[in-house]
Amino acid sequence: MKLLHLIKISIVSVFLFGFVSCDIISEPSDNQTLALLALALPQSVNLEFEALVNGQKITSGTNTLSDSRSVQFRDFRLYISEVKFVRADGSTADVSLSTDNVWQANGVSLVDLETYRTTETNIKVNGSVPIGSYTGIQFTVGVPAALNHLNSTNQSSPLNIGSMYWSWTGGYKHANIEFSYNGTDWTSLHLGSTTCSGAPNYGNCSKKFRAIILLSGQVNVSNQKISLDVDKLLTGHTYGAMGMCMPGTGAPCDSLVQAFGMNISNGAMDSSITQRFFSLR
User: Fold this and answer.
1) Which residue in 163, 172, 232, 249 could disulfide with 143, CB within 3.0 to 4.6 Å?
2) pLDDT above 90 for 180
């Protein structure tokens, strides 16, 4: 991808040089046009997601949290969509996600960070964005509302995975994280849209529970790591009677939903709740 990108830039640069050199007197408008053409060139996007426990990548066995608790995982998957890079003035540039019909399709990518439920993992989100200087990144954890109630049995991967589909009234599981502190009692955090109506497709969900994550800082478009801090996700959570954690199920699940920065009552992002799960690395 990087080689192809360099070749594209070289070809266009030669063309632009020739165009300018043949015009002895270049009008200001011509220079502006050439500048816009250069800015329109896409550059490759390569995001790499990693889940960390006490600063270390999660393993398939026992992991030790910073508070000395042990934790194991049997699922750690998230849908990522609506990726944008943020400029210094606050404007954004949309990332066009590539399509492989395995991990990415229809502008949606599936990040899979463990191997208990699946034999393969995927830490990459790939695509392209216009060349520019960016000071942040924004993405959504979840499937876009327009795609959330598709028939998963006839979709391209990764939207055809039955274990990532919640129900016909809720659509996909935007995030599916299952963990245990003792290897016996499992907590399943399933984030998905709720309070959906409009049979038979149930596309009108008043509580979307799609986390919009904004991370500020110097970003490397072609090679940027994004960390998921498990210690911060599990802050304030202890295993209780509620092993199935879905939005609206109450304590001890509420703290898990709030780690994404979402309001547990209406399923929207809440400016009074700082998401604590994701960070640039």
Assistant:
1) 172
2) yes
